[in-house]
Design brief:
Blueprint: E1 4-10, E2 15-20, H1 23-34, E3 42-47, H2 53-64, E4 80-83, E5 89-93, H3 100-105, H4 108-111, E6 117-121, E7 134-143, E8 146-154, H5 156-170
Parallel strand pairs: 3-6, 3-7, 5-6
Antiparallel strand pairs: 1-2, 2-8, 4-5, 7-8
Bound molecules: adenosine-5'-diphosphate (ADP) and magnesium ion.
Length: 174
Amino acid sequence: MQIQATKAWDPEAFSFAVVSCSQEETEALGRAIGSLLEPGDVVTLSGELGGGKTCLVRGIVSSVAPDSAALVSSPTFALLHEYPGQPAVLHYDCYRLHGIDDAFEAGLEDQLQGNAVYLIEWPDKISEIIKNERLELLFEYDGETSRRISFLPHGPRAIAQVKKLSSWCFAPSF
Ligand SMILES: Nc1ncnc2c1ncn2[C@@H]1O[C@H](COP(=O)(O)OP(=O)(O)O)[C@@H](O)[C@H]1O
Ligand SMILES: [Mg+2]
């Protein structure tokens, strides 16, 4: 496993980025993130189609809700997939939402207040109802099988999580 840091840890910005060279590496990164998540945590995943967002979600689910990991699928027509676990994982793919009214109609605002772990693809569609404290992930193409993944924490919990992740990613054994 080689996750190569492309940007040194930046203590001012509290952010860093890695390049994942395969689907397996992206899933492993997801498992590392999942091991740090607690009830109520929100992770948003942004970036173009095929960037690896759902792949990373599979890694998170395999760590938080292991019995359900095989069920995580790439873009579907469903807005929400729920994976029972301790805590449960609610995975939203907002790609097909037309706007915030669709989200209100689907009851998202109330759902997002609970004690699950919330993983949200295409968060810009529902930014009004996502809480400020969250871990923001950005996915960019860096080649056919490589993806640059940036970690942008918002709030003290996410900053602590990103600090820990960066120390893991920079460790030679990761
Ligand atoms: N380094 C990588 N990380 C994740 N996926 C990759 C990588 N390289 C190639 N891929 C491929 O890119 C696609 C990512 O799909 P998916 O995770 O559904 O993206 P998204 O949810 O961002 O649309 C998959 O077909 C996967 O095999
Ligand atoms: Mg997806």
